[in-house]
Amino acid sequence: MYRAFLIKYGEIGVKGKNRYLFEDALVKQIEHSLKRVEGEFKVSKESGRIYVNVTSESYDYDDTIKALTSVFGIIGVCPMVQVEDHGFDELAKETIAYMDRAYPDKKLTFKVEARRARKEYPLNSQEINVLMGEKVLMAFEEQGMRVDVHHPDVLLCVEIRNKINIYSQELKGRGGMPVGTNGKAMLLLSGGIDSPVAGFLAAKRGITVEAVYFNSPPYTSERAKQKVVDLAKEISRYCGPVKLHIVNFTEIQLHLYDKVPQDELTIIMKRYFYRVAETIARKEGCIGLVTGESVGQVSSQTLQSLAVINEVATMPVIRPLVCFDKQEIIDISIDIGTYETSILPYEDCCTIFVAKHPVTKPSSEKIAKHEARVAESIVPLLEEALANVEVVVAE
Ligand code: ATP
Ligand code: MG
Questions:
Q1: Ligand 2 center–CA 195 separation, angstroms
Q2: Residues contacting ligand 1 via CB (< 6 Å)
Q3: Residue of the nearest CA to atom 4 in ligand 1?
Q4: Which domains are assigned to the chain?
Q5: For residue range 262-319, what is the model confidence (pLDDT) as tens digits?
Q6: Which of 127, 162, 251, 387 has the fewest CB neighbours in a 10 Å radius?
Q7: Is the pTM of this model over 0.90?
């Protein structure tokens, strides 16, 4: 029944020039998101509004709604019936037909809310409200429909524009800002539950997300790597295509394993994660890092540990989950569809090289001192790893 959708987006902070950037980014993300859906669509901007029109004969309605409500920046999606202007009587017929199909059960209250963007239309908004209200009421009164101008069940919108839009339903979007409006950051993406959620949340604020995964073959399997690629694909539903950099970290890890105290291994390894991630980030034009770290979750995520790891960062490190409980993170991962993949049992590189008794209150001085032992010898290994990064665009 629907061949068109009105896209509602948050207006706060999108005045002047920013408005164009915001709308253009939104159109681009909508187009990307609809690529997954069966059917052909046209996304257009028209006098401060964004419309999606179906251009193919058939399409998948549920998937369309799912795709549209996944795009950040959208607060609501209204499926509409769009008709040409053939005079008021014809419009009344179309509107009655719309109400008939949209609400099989007619025991409801409604109110007409007309808007007239085209001022030469012969009736003004108030006149349309009254006349259309009467027509619809007459059609369905016997079946129990009533008018309620204060608290209607259904707000029936009739908008007179180039075409006429009839709609009354709004499906909730996720809000946020369109990806591409707030710079680009490098997500440290592991196969766990947290980092995909962190990437999702960074993208929700309009950040374009690239990702880096530290792989340790043969200590980690091909399937562990595939799992990370799959997770990148899953978040691309929200983030747009995710450029994933896969770094072979094995030699670096073995070297550290050999040379630094066991209880400090995780912290020092994480510092190298940050350094390598930043090097790639800089090359890619990213201006921040994103991680799935959350205070207190594991020994390497006590505030002291985070502070010592953070010392090597020169870019802002965005940690969207920093104060979330594990259960809250799990709830989001279930909601966004990454949970099932995240809990597949393939180990990531950290679990192989974990110490039995890792430090929970690392000393910045000690770490720096022990790290200095490898500072020189690790350089060729870092260069080697950086020269052989595998890139996958996940979408
Ligand atoms: P996650 O659920 O995201 O794997 P975690 O609870 O397992 O996180 P850690 O292993 O301490 O926690 O990792 C903390 C963060 O460090 C991760 O959220 C991720 O951002 C980054 N990270 C960990 N391992 C890797 C890896 N192999 N490649 C890239 N980033 C990683
Ligand atoms: Mg992990």
A1: 8
A2: 188-190, 192-195, 212-214, 273, 291-293, 297-298, 300-301, 348-350
A3: 192
A4: 4-172 (3.30.2130.30), 184-394 (3.40.50.620)
A5: 999 999 999 999 999 999 999 999 999 999 999 987 777 899 999 999 999 999 999 9
A6: 387
A7: yes
